[in-house]
Amino acid sequence: MSEDSTEKSPNLVLKYAIYGTIACIVGAFISQQLGYNDGGIQAYLSAAIAGCVGGAVGGNIRKKKGKNS
Predict the structure, then answer these.
(1) Domain-embedded: residue 46
(2) Cβ–Cβ contacts within 10 Å for residue 25, how many?
(3) Domain count of the chain?
(4) What is the pLDDT along the chain (69 residues), one digit of tens a residue?
């Protein structure tokens, strides 16, 4: 893949955003089972938003380093 198509493709950022969202929702569920949060919608929503943003930032950093997977 050429460098131009890597810069224009949002696939890596989207992939890491999805992975981050899923991982944080699973983490919120585990923390609820351990008694660290109350299991409300606010805990899951904030975990999903944080995972999505963190994953997108991580994917963007990897993309800028020239990685494409």
Answers:
(1) yes
(2) 16
(3) 1
(4) 455 555 566 699 999 999 999 999 999 999 999 999 898 999 999 999 999 999 999 999 998 988 877
